Every structure is written in C-alpha cells, then in structure tokens.
C-alpha cells in the first residue's frame, strides 16, 4: 500500500459526459502528479500540482483540467469525453518536486462507451 | 519521440537466475532515474532509484546501474523469483522545479519456476 488513494476505482460513462477523478496523496506529500496509461502505451504525464499551485503541464488535453485543494487532495476533471479517453488514470505523490520518488495510487479505470 | 526506451517488450528467466532489464534515454538533462514494478490493475510500485551523480545503487536483490556516457541504465534482479513476474517500467526526471517522470513502455518479466 503506497498510501496514495484514488476514487473511484472504476468508472463507466458515455461520450460527451464529464467525470471527476479524486486523489489523496500520502500524508506529508505536497506534490501531486496525474498520469494517463492508454492501451499499449506507457504512462504519460498530464499535470503536476505542488502545494495548491500548478507546476507543470504535460500532454493534457484542453478538455481536461485539475486542481489541488488546501487539504492537498487533487481532482482531475475530464469533460466532453471521447472513446479515446478510455484509459487508466494514475495519481502519484511526492514530498516535494525534483529528485523525489513518486508513489502511485491504484488508479482509476475509465471506460467511455 | 521517445526519450526513454525499453527495447525489450518481454523477458523470460528461470527462477534463481539473474534478470537484467535495460533502459536507454536520449535527454542528457535527466538527473534522476527510477524503476517501477507493475501488476495488472494496480498502480506502479517503486523499486529503486539512482541519481545521476552515482553509477550504482543496490537494495537487497535489486541493483540499478547507470552509464551516463552511454545514456543507459539497467536493473539487475538476483536471484529472480516467480513473484518478480510483472511489468517493469524505467522512468527518468529532468529535475528542475517540475520533477515529472518520463516513462518507458515497460518490459514484461516472466520468472519460471
């Protein structure tokens, strides 16, 4: 158990819909990262928050957004969903930023029908 | 353009023998490298890391070697056990204030009894 929690574990929705994925980092960690793993793909970095502020963006679509709240939990919002958004979404946390080990949650499996 | 490459999609090893998983990278700015192990339907589990100022790091049965001039790192597992069967991901970070990880596509290790 990494100490990172993600909800829900599974999510099935329809095209055009909007969903919210939630992540609680390990106790004491200030950084939260979001990654997407599609079929046959490695993990792709989406976005990084540190202590409530956005630090870096990766290959994140404009239809996707995220935020980190004062209690340090984070939410990833996916809107106008398309079939191709079906993937595993992982959250990871670390104490700070550079040269820090990231600990991953169990992931949310999103299926868009 | 893949900055982190794991050229072997799969590897099969006999129990008790050494498993060697390889990873190449192209970005000379990477300064921190990690190996993760992943089972299906679970999040990646951190195994071992190495900073670019070192060329070797050891933790129990796991050793990571870094060859900066060749931009190559490897993970050695000795002795290999059936429970080591999983997908192994190599990841790299370019430090700075971001710290997001760039992952290879993984190598599936099968350890046969």
What does this structure look like?
The complex is a heterodimer of chains A (about 110) and B (about 110). Chain A has about 110 residues and is an all-beta fold. Helices cover about 0% and strands about 50% of the residues of chain A. Chain A has strands at about 5, 10-15, 20-25, 30-35, 45-50, 55, 65-70, 75-80, 85-95, 105, 110. The N and C termini of chain A lie far apart (about 30 Å). The model of chain A has no long low-confidence stretch (mean pLDDT about 95). In chain A, the strands form two sheets. In chain A, strands 2, 4, 5, 6, 9, 10 and 11 form a seven-stranded mixed β-sheet that branches. In chain A, strands 1-3-8-7 form a four-stranded antiparallel β-sheet, with no helix packed on it. With about 110 residues, chain B is an all-beta fold. In chain B, the strands form two sheets. In chain B, strands 2, 4, 5, 9, 10 and 11 form a six-stranded mixed β-sheet that branches. Chain B has strands at about 5, 10-15, 20-25, 30-40, 45-50, 55-60, 60-65, 70-75, 85-95, 100-105, 105-110.
Mean pLDDT of chain A: 93
The main sheet of chain B comes to: 6 strands, mixed
Instruction: Give the helices and strands of chain A as they follow along the chain.
Output: EEEEEEEEEEE
Strand content of chain A: over 45%
Task: Count every helix of chain A, treating DSSP H or I runs of 4 or more residues as helices.
Answer: 0
Q: What is the end-to-end distance of chain A? A: 31 Å
Question: Between the first and last Cα atoms of chain B, what is the distance in angstroms?
Answer: 38 Å
Largest interface, with counts of residues having CB < 8 Å to the other chain, equals: A-B, 32 and 28 residues
Could you give a quick summary of the protein structure above?
The complex is a heterodimer of chains A (113) and B (113). Chain A has no helices and 11 strands. Chain A has strands at residues 5-7, 10-13, 19-24, 31-37, 43-50, 53-57, 64-68, 74-78, 87-94, 103-104, 108-112.
